[in-house]
């Protein structure tokens, strides 16, 4: 991943809360990375991979202490080696030894992160804007479906499965992109006026 994301975009990509991400970065990652705890957060692949891993471990009921989290992040940054406790980094894997061993597939998690990153960084593959289509509003490529329509319905709580039935022509990546956009805060400023038809 060539560029870094701000905390808001990174949180939307991961499906987490930006405030929690900032707190975790300040408490855990900044000391390991040797960065100041204040200022804006810039997240690269290693940071995104770390947050996805910690979220996965949490979903499995495994809570790590701040020092254990720092050790895990240190192993991700170093790419290989062993931590001071039971954590080990092997090619494509993060392993915890001990009474209850654990192995995490870093390759699979990395593929998910890269896929989502491409959706965010290269929207032109899924979205187009043409003055002759819906007055130039961004639409999903090859359709007349405005991106804002799907995004706003997701923000309103409409289940994705229902939208997939309503918009059968949209691809799974299109829905994945819309979900990420729905998690981003609305841009400031006035919303675009709706199109009004008038008789000549």
Describe the 3D structure.
This protein is of the alpha+beta class. The chain has 2 domains: 5-79 and 105-118, no CATH class; 124-183, Orthogonal Bundle (Arc Repressor Mutant, subunit A), CATH 1.10.10.10. 48% of the residues lie in helices and 11% in strands. Strand 5 (93-96) and strand 6 (102-105) form a beta hairpin. The model has no long low-confidence stretch (mean pLDDT 85).
Indicate the mean pLDDT.
85
- What is the number of independent domains? 2
Shape: elongated
How far the N terminus sits from the C terminus, by CA atoms, comes to: 52 Å
Evaluate the radius of gyration: 20 Å
Low-pLDDT runs of 5+ residues are none
What level of helicity do the residues show? 40-55%
Defining traits:
200 residues; Arc Repressor Mutant, subunit A
List the helices and strands and how they pair.
Layout: E1 5-6, H1 7-14, H2 18-33, E2 42-43, H3 45-59, H4 66-78, E3 81-82, E4 87-90, E5 93-96, E6 102-105, H5 106-121, E7 127-128, E8 139-140, H6 147-155, H7 160-166, H8 172-183
Antiparallel strand pairs: 1-2, 3-4, 4-5, 5-6, 7-8
Helix pairs in contact: 1-8, 2-4, 3-4, 3-5, 6-8
Describe the structure in brief.
The protein has helices at 7-14, 18-33, 45-59, 66-78, 106-121, 147-155, 160-166, 172-183, and strands at 5-6, 42-43, 81-82, 87-90, 93-96, 102-105, 127-128, 139-140.
